[in-house]
From TrEMBL:
Organism, scientific name: Rhizobium croatiense
InterPro entries for the chain: ACMSD (IPR032465), Amidohydro-rel (IPR006680), Metal_Hydrolase (IPR032466)
Ranges for domain Amidohydrolase-related: 39-324
Tagged with keyword Lyase: yes
Top-level taxonomic group: Bacteria
Gene3D superfamilies to which the protein is assigned, alphabetical: Metal-dependent hydrolases
Keyword Kinase: no
Pfam families the record matches: Amidohydro_2
UniProt-recorded name of the protein: Gamma-resorcylate decarboxylase
SUPFAM superfamilies (alphabetical): Metallo-dependent hydrolases
Keywords in alphabetical order: Lyase
Length: 324
């Protein structure tokens, strides 16, 4: 399929490059860092070769979210966003941008998002999970009360927010002790991000801001296949839900969330997601440079779905969501 739009596509600046060093072994790091730092050369050639018209670019992980000193987080986010704006300006026909945000400070994050959208032309934000801040032992998840003002800004700007994974911190990773292979994209990324997304759904956030749109990668981090159970466990016990939100969790998932195909190139999984959330809320993505563009595109272009759904997932849904 020609004209695809891909939106979980990462880059790095020198200050964040080493955040990605542990995700591949040995000599593969030489290749990965080259991929992360390149925007205008190999990336464009691969896009041309595999029918990708537009990439929406975002900073690598965990990057800003793992910078515990708030002032430095604000500075790195701004520098990354300025660098990305410069790269996109070279090829505005091929690249768009997600803002990196210093959510250690919700007000600063809101101001940076406004700057990126109104002045730099960014189409939304991508944030790498919870944030850390030096003056608190608590991890900062975005259902917490101090983020309500930030979410009001997102709603007012009417741009999507991509909730991207990061690993849990070592003190929260005891279940993985002795099994490091389960960390990262194998399992821990999905578990961490799914819980964060459920916290947002249960918090009442979408009752306050029903126009908010949240994107999850990797075919929804496992959530499409758990919706019925989340809302119907022990259904014979007639007690009200114990969360503040006014509706079923599946209602928010189906109305306020989109998912992408990033790093999860399996037809059965895609069809299951289409049955749960609908083809109108699924978006093509590759997860470059951590996954291969050819693996994503070759699979998607031949997967056994209708051509109408392929056009929606590959291009049309993103055009509508981002106003491209």
């Amino acid at each position: 399929m020609q004209g695809k739009i891909a939106l979980e596509e990462h880059f790095a600046i020198p200050e964040t490059l080493m955040d990605s060093a542990g995700f591949v072994p040995g000599d593969y790091w030489t290749e990965l860092q080259s991929r992360l730092l390149d925007i205008q050369d190999k990336r464009l050639k691969l896009m041309d070769a595999h029918g990708i018209e537009t990439m929406i670019l975002s900073l690598n992980a965990p990057a800003v979210q793992a910078i515990a000193e708030t002032g430095r987080a604000i500075d790195i986010a701004r520098r990354a966003n300025d660098a990305l704006a410069e790269e996109c300006a070279k090829r505005p026909d091929r690249f768009r941008a997600f803002a990196a945000l210093p959510l250690q400070d919700p007000e600063a994050a809101a101001r940076e998002l406004e700057r990126c959208v109104k002045e730099l032309g960014f189409v939304g934000a991508l944030v790498n999970g919870f944030s850390q801040r030096a003056d608190t032992d608590a991890l900062l998840y975005y259902d917490l009360p101090q983020y309500r003002g930030f979410w009001a800004t997102v709603a007012a700007l009417n741009v999507p927010f991509y909730l991207h994974p990061r690993n849990p911190l070592p003190q929260d990773s005891r279940i993985y002790e002795g099994h490091p292979w389960l960390m990262g994209p194998t399992w821990a990324f999905a578990q961490e991000t799914a819980v964060h997304a459920l916290r947002l759904m249960g918090s009442g956030l979408f009752d306050e801001h029903p126009n908010l749109r949240i994107i999850l990668g990797h075919m929804g981090e496992g959530l499409p296949y758990m919706m019925w159970r989340i809302d119907h466990r022990n259904a014979w016990v007639k007690v009200p839900p114990k969360y503040p939100a006014k509706r079923r969790i599946a209602d928010y998932f189906n109305e306020n969330f989109y998912i992408t195909t990033s790093g999860n190139f399996r037809t059965q999984t895609l069809i299951d997601a289409m049955l749960e959330i609908g083809a109108d809320r699924i978006l093509f993505s590759t997860d470059w440079p951590f996954e291969n563009i050819d693996h994503a595109a070759d699979w998607f272009d031949t997967t056994t779905i209708s051509e109408a759904d392929r056009a929606k997932i590959g291009r049309t849904n993103a055009k509508l969501l981002f106003g491209i």
